[in-house]
Amino acid sequence: MTGRRSVSAVTDFDQVYATTAPRLVGQLYLMIGDLAEAQDCVQEAFARAWLRWDSLTDGRGDPVGWVKTTAYRLAISHWRHWKAGVKALRKHGVPPDTPAPSPDAVALRDALAQLPKAQRVALVLHHLNDMRVEDVARELRVPPGTVKARLSRGRAALAVLLADWHTDVLATEEFHA
Prior knowledge:
Layout: H1 7-32, H2 35-51, H3 53-56, H4 63-92, H5 103-113, H6 117-128, H7 133-140, H8 144-176
């Protein structure tokens, strides 16, 4: 809906929610066996219902039935994703532990975060995704010269930021040595 809702529509929605949501959560919980999941599915169903409340309450539909069906379908969808995950786990085993990022990776992430977004995106696409300047330009819908300028400015800024980081690390290491 693009306009404002009437007070009566808001009141109707609030009333339907207050009287049916707890019961729906209980029913869905009994069906799927996960209270948090049941609460999430009912909440999502009501959020979707709110977006089309006028059409659900125009006298031709059953808003409570629509919410029940939507919540149930959401639960089934989540269950299917969970089941697929269990199947993959059985087939491939537990994924190996992911090691913590190295101090260099953390420093690079932090330095990139300080750059303007345009420079950061150009640097990541070009250097970390191995994209040619022309491909980056096409992806970002800018001229190749703009990409080259962003790369140049970004590299210069990174050099300063990472030099400061490197100096800080050396000073800390020497202090603790």
